[in-house]
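FAQ: What does a multi-protein file look like?

Like this. Sequence, then tokens, then the next protein.
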Amino acid sequence: MDRIERAFDLRVAKALNRVGIPSKHDVDTLFAWLDELRA
């Protein structure tokens, strides 16, 4: 990925986070936690 694309992705991710939309990492963490609870 080039530098401009990385900068764009980072800015979009920050904007989404500010309005309360969770990141992929947040969702993955939640699913892992739910899997542990079900075990």
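And here is the next protein:
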Amino acid sequence: MSKSATLLLLVIIFTAGPACYDSAATDTATPPDQRSGRVGLQSKKEFFDLAGFVDQEIETLNLAKRTITKKVTIDGKSEEKKLDATDFTNDLDLFRKADINKPAWIEKYRIETVGNDTSYIATDSSLRTRHLQVLRNENNEVQRIEIKRRSGNVLSSGSQELSYHKDSGYRIYSRQIGDLVGDAEVSVEVKF
């Protein structure tokens, strides 16, 4: 791996931002406005509990010990491998870090719901997670998560697009623009 690709991966890891989540088990299948059942009371989580959902998926995937196909593309050059008994904790950490449940952020996301799909859109330009979309099936079960994040530090700026498809895989795309480290694109695609 080239020095710039290695540096890019380090930048991605260290600019993902701190994980702000409560690891307590919560109901992720029911939208927040339907959880308490009582008017005027707020549920424990104001928004979709992405961190809780990701933790459940990590546990399920790690117990299943599935063989996966992992394709990594760096600046157009790809490598694909089949892997056995992968630990999904590190791979799905970027999804967990996109969780928006933080008390200070309650008024900083606009919620849009169309049918079974809910979108959380940042109204504050300083927030890294710009858009979180939760797509559910007719039984109100989460089927797909789509996330758009901003990343960066003093050396570079960039964006990330994360897509998680329950029971089939996920994709992480990151684009970094930097004066010192140059521009780079990284894509990780996993199928299970």
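Q: Is there any per-entry metadata?
A: Some entries carry free-text notes. For the entry above: The beta strands are 68-74, 77-83, 109-114, 117-122, 129-136, 142-152, 157-165, 169-177, 184-191.
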